[in-house]
User: What shape does this take?
Amino acid sequence: MSNITDFEHILIEGQNIKDFINSKATPLKELMTYYKCAMMEVETKFKVLNQEFSLEYDRNPIETIKTRLKSIESIFDKLVDRSFPLTVKSIEENLNDVAGVRVICGFPSDIYSLSEAFLKQDDITLIAKKDYMKNPKPNGYRSLHLIVEIPIFLHNEKKPMRVEVQFRTISMDWWASLEHKIRYKKDYVITSEIAAELKICAEAAAVLDNKMEQIQYKIQSNGIHGK
Ligand code: 0O2
Assistant: This one.
């Protein structure tokens, strides 16, 4: 069954979403393909960096790379929420997170090394940076977010596309995934008590990240001086 059928009850400015999607189908499909290509380009860059780092340091800084393309439903919800025009052009102009790449690292310092190496590449343009590691959100959320532009090469043009890159350690990712699940739990409102407990967990995860990093430094320096 097509998912579009599920959307039939949603009206956007008096227009049925199915008609809307049909009338914009080709340009929208093209744009989504371009985002997918940009996402693949970014993912490949991190795979390459991971390989290169492993040659130099004898370990892989990246644990996992996750990619996601925002669903059409979420794209429309976001445009409606923020009162942006419901056009394909508006998606490109107003949304930065249609293509998302999440890079999960072992240690906090890996995040800074990788993001610096990535941003040094001459085809990457930094649009925005939010460092929620240095300045965690009030709820305890930690991560490093970059919005970048990367060119994709089509048969007759070079097209810059925006991609959101989120860097997290395993523990930052574990906390954010569970917090996200709790926050969006149906019919559940987070009380201030639960919010405070979640924050304590985020802070405990940050302490563990730092402890693990110190252990890693010790092992590294023993490796250099020990043999
Ligand atoms: P999804 O499904 O992960 O994409 P923006 O929405 O980018 O225009 P904003 O809100 O300032 O503006 O962006 P920010 O702070 O960079 O956060 C964007 C994304 O970071 C979110 O996307 C989440 O993925 C993640 N994030 C930010 N804050 C939190 C948080 O407190 N908890 C968790 N679990 N994740 C967070 P979306 O669109 O919410 O969701």
Q: What stands out?
A: The longest strand covers residues 158-169. Residues 44 and 50 are 10 Å apart (CA to CA). The two ends are 63 Å apart (CA to CA).
